[in-house]
């Protein structure tokens, strides 16, 4: 397995090659997704001591259930499936926290909870994911994962023959 710094450097070096084939109007959403996929939602997020886990800082506790049930190089390292699994997981966590916040605010201040509930998180997520920009963002995450996984495969292969 390549070191975290190697993954980061290779992913960043490959990004311009992906951008070359994209329409210019999607550079930012794709690049943002690619950077999120490289630094925060890497396949190595399943290891508590990995750089991506550490980058979540105080919020790394959000990934403990994922890490508990995901073995390293399991589904997390399957192209597309691993990316979508992590996106689904973090979306589910955010949704849970959102509804928990509304529940707590309902107990404390009904008016404030109604104001928070007026922001329809499901509608917002749906609108983002159904836009071209949202699709390019997700494509960026998937491409960053593919580079990560290919590097892991090549690294393992060369270590075996060396």
- Which residue ranges are poorly predicted, with pLDDT under 50 across at least 5 consecutive positions? none
The assigned structural class equals: mainly alpha
**Span from first to last CA?**
14 Å
Q: Name the helix and strand elements from N-terminus to C-terminus, one letter apiece.
A: HHHHHHHH
Rg over C-alpha atoms, rounded to the nearest angstrom: 18 Å
Largest sheet: number of strands, sense, barrel closure: none
Total helix count? 8
What is the count of β-strands? 0
Helix content: over 70%
The percent range for strand residues is: under 5%
Q: Note the quaternary state here.
A: single chain
Mean pLDDT: 89
Describe the structure.
With 162 residues, this protein is mainly alpha-helical. It has a domain at 4-87 and 133-161. The protein contains eight helices and no strands. It has helices at residues 4-20, 27-39, 51-55, 64-69, 81-108, 110-118, 121-129, 132-161. The longest helix is centred in the C-terminal third of the chain and has 30 residues, at 132-161. The protein is globular and about 65 Å long. It starts with a helix and ends with a helix. The mean pLDDT is 89.
């Amino acid at each position: 397995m390549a070191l975290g710094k190697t993954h980061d450097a290779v992913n960043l070096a490959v990004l311009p090659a992906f951008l070359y084939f994209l329409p210019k109007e999607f550079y930012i959403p794709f690049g943002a997704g690619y950077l999120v996929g490289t630094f925060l939602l890497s396949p190595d997020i399943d290891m508590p001591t990995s750089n991506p886990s550490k980058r979540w800082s105080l919020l790394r506790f959000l990934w403990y259930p994922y890490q508990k049930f995901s073995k390293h190089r399991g589904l997390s390292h399957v192209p597309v499936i691993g990316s979508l699994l992590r996106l689904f997981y973090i979306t589910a966590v955010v949704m849970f926290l959102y509804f928990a916040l509304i529940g707590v605010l309902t107990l404390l201040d009904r008016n404030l909870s109604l104001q928070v509930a007026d922001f329809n998180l499901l509608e917002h997520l749906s609108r983002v994911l159904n836009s071209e920009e949202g699709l390019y963002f997700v494509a960026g995450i998937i491409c960053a994962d593919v580079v990560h996984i290919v590097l892991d495969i090549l690294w393992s292969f060369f270590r075996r023959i060396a």
